[in-house]
Amino acid sequence: MDLENLSIKIKSGLEEIGKLFSDFHEKSKMACPPHCGKCCYNPEISCHPYELLPLALDLLERNLAEEYLMKAKNSKDGICVLLNQVHPESGQGSCTDYQNRPSLCRAFAVSGRINKKNEVELSVCKKLKELYSMEDFHYTDDEVPYISLVKRKLEAIDPVMIGPQININEALIIILEKVLLRQSFLKN
Ligand code: SF4
Question: What region, left, alpha or beta, does residue 7 occupy, with left being phi > 0 and alpha being psi -120 to 50 degrees?
Answer without folding.
Answer: alpha
